[in-house]
Amino acid sequence: MLTDTIVAVATAIGQSSVGIVRISGPKAFQIAEEIFRSPKNIAFNQFKANTINFGYIVDGDKVIDEVLLSIFKAPKSYTGEDVIEVNCHGGSIPIKKTMELILKKGARLAEPGEFTKRAFLNGRIDLSQAEAIMDLISAKTDLSLNVATSHVLGKLSAKVQEINEIIISALAYIEATIDYPDEVFEEGDTLKIKESLLEGVEKLEKLLTTSKAGKILREGIKTTIVGKPNVGKSSLLNRLLNSQRAIVTDIPGTTRDILEEQISIRGIPMILVDTAGIRETEDVVEKIGVERSKKAIEESDLILFVLDGSRSWDIYDQQILELLQGKNVIVLLNKRDLEQVLTKEEVQNITGYQEVIEISVNEDINLDKLEEGIIKTYELKDLISRSDEVLISNIRHEKSLQDAKINLEDAIKNIENGLPLDIIAIDLRDAWENLGKVTGQTLNKGIIDEIFSRFCLGK
Ligand SMILES: Nc1nc2c(ncn2[C@@H]2O[C@H](COP(=O)(O)OP(=O)(O)OP(=O)(O)O)[C@@H](O)[C@H]2O)c(=O)[nH]1
Ligand SMILES: [Mg+2]
Questions:
Q1: Which of 225, 226, 228, 230 to mutate to test the pocket of ligand 1 (most atoms within 8 A of CB)?
Q2: Where are the beta strands (DSSP E) in 83-153?
Q3: Any idea where the TrmE-type G domain is (predicted)?
Q4: For residue 236, what are the contacts with CB-CB under 8 A and spacing of at least 6?
Q5: Last residue of a domain, which of 358, 384, 410?
Q6: Is 42 helix (H, G, I), strand (E, B) or coil?
Q7: CATH code of the domain covering residue 170
Q8: What DSSP assignment string belongs to 133-196?
Q9: For residue range 286-295, what is the model confidence (pLDDT) as tens digits?
Q10: Same domain for 430 and 348
Q11: Model pLDDT for residues 38-66, shown as the tens digit of each residue
Q12: Mean pLDDT across the stretch 278-291?
């Protein structure tokens, strides 16, 4: 229901200089009139749209906070409705009191993402832009931010629209021919339509090739550091984070649980996971840690397999190697500053992995090579320079584009096989519907509600 007025705190709760309470809906101005008083007692209806006004939030005669009040008049607001934003002082009490007062005056507490959902329902933005707003808020690195902002600006929507136009003009032509049976669908026309659909497939393919890169920039590369106890896994995590996050000791079995942190390597987001050294153990706590390490391996995109160059290859290294089948692995031969017992060639021969980097975490040797290794493994060089382009970063978008591509390919096949025009029209309508899922045009209410429910409160 869009006829009610919603309110939420738009900023993080806690102590800060400013906290923003946002109201949207038909009663927004009426509520503002009741709770806001300007120092010169100017009547609310004298304030212009798109202005910021100094004054007080009042409950009857009682002043609750000194604020700045912004007025946005429909349809030129974030939601497309009348919107009021109150910049309160950022303590939890002024905000709580202001919220209570607004609720008492007839607004309802907004659901997560409800402001953005209204912007979508009122046609201010399409669904891909709405989703990009959330990606922008949760962007992990500068490069991730580039991808999100290009979507917010509607660059993805524009690409989808280009393909949509190809489909719609083919569909219009076919339907006209069906409606007027006297008009024959001539060979030249068939060829023209086929060519335009091929162009559509090509555009879709081009977009789809960006999905791997887009996903990495949006979600990060889940990278797990594994190895037997005491090889220097936690030391490596601390070094890459530049902080003493994990406990490091010379006692094997120091790390008992997995530990997850985010880092950025040349703008590529990575979720770095430190694990308990994997070995046979009777210690109950350590045993659970080892199980978790194994699970972390399964769930990760990239493994940093750490070996200790000052100790020879043993059964524990071998057991871990066997867990890494089918994974992207970079082998790190650590403790290069000590006398070396295990050589790079030996490791390459035993493991079969050619990407073996000799490092010393403690002496800071070759850690830049590790960064290069990660970039190389993921063919990310290109990505760093491409982040301004439109990249598909959302699995839902990828699936819809993939489905639309299949529909277009079916249409082309059916044209080639001389099938009736009605059948081709069905393929094209399906393609149109699948493309519309990206922008939200053809999604049902249930799915749209589900998507917005994942947004944060107040957005
Ligand atoms: N000489 C030398 N010592 C290192 C290096 N990296 C780590 N160490 C030492 O190795 C010991 C173990 O380091 P950790 O980082 O705790 O090892 P871990 O792999 O996390 O060990 P567990 O948590 O027990 O599995 C510590 O004393 C570190 O200071 C290195 O490059 N050179
Ligand atoms: Mg450790």
A1: 230
A2: 83-89, 108-109
A3: 220-379
A4: 225, 274, 304, 306, 332, 334, 361
A5: 384
A6: coil
A7: 1.20.120.430
A8: HHHHHT--SHHHHHHHHHHHTTHHHHHHHHHHHHHHHHHHHHHHHHH-TTS---HHHHHHHHHH
A9: 778 778 888 8
A10: no
A11: 999 999 999 999 999 999 999 999 999 99
A12: 80
User: How far is residue 159's CA from residue 438's CA, in Å, rounded to a whole number?
Assistant: 11
Q: Is 111 exposed, middle or buried (0-12, 13-18, 19+ CB in 10 A)?
A: middle
Q: What is the pLDDT of residues 398-438, one digit of tens each?
A: 999 999 999 999 999 999 998 888 899 999 999 999 999 99
Q: Residue 184: pLDDT above 80?
A: no
Instruction: Mark whether 91 and 50 lie in a shared domain.
Output: yes
Answer whether residue 157 is part of any domain. yes
Do residue 66 and residue 140 come from a single domain?
A: no
Last-in-domain residue among 110, 145, 176: 110
Q: Is 360 in the pocket of ligand 1 (CB under 6 A)?
A: yes
Residue 174 lies in a domain: yes
CATH number for the domain harbouring residue 306: 3.40.50.300
Do 294 and 359 fall within a single domain? yes
Q: Are residues 184 and 244 in the same domain?
A: no
Q: 313 in helix, strand or coil?
A: coil
Q: Which protein residue's CA is at the shortest distance from atom 3 of ligand 1?
A: 335
Q: How far apart are CA 34 and CA 57, in angstroms?
A: 9
Instruction: Examine the domain organization and report whether 339 and 399 are in the same domain.
Output: no
Residue 263 belongs to domain spanning: 217-384
CB 265 within 8 A of CB 374: yes
Q: How far apart are the C-alpha atoms of 439 and 332, rounded to whole Å? A: 44
* Ligand 1 near 249 CB (within 6 A): yes
Nearest 5°: phi and psi at 52? Answer: -115, 130
Residue 267 included in any domain: yes
Q: What is the Cα 348 distance to its own chain's centre?
A: 37
CA 230 to ligand 1 center in whole angstroms: 5
Pairing of strands 302-308, 83-89: unpaired
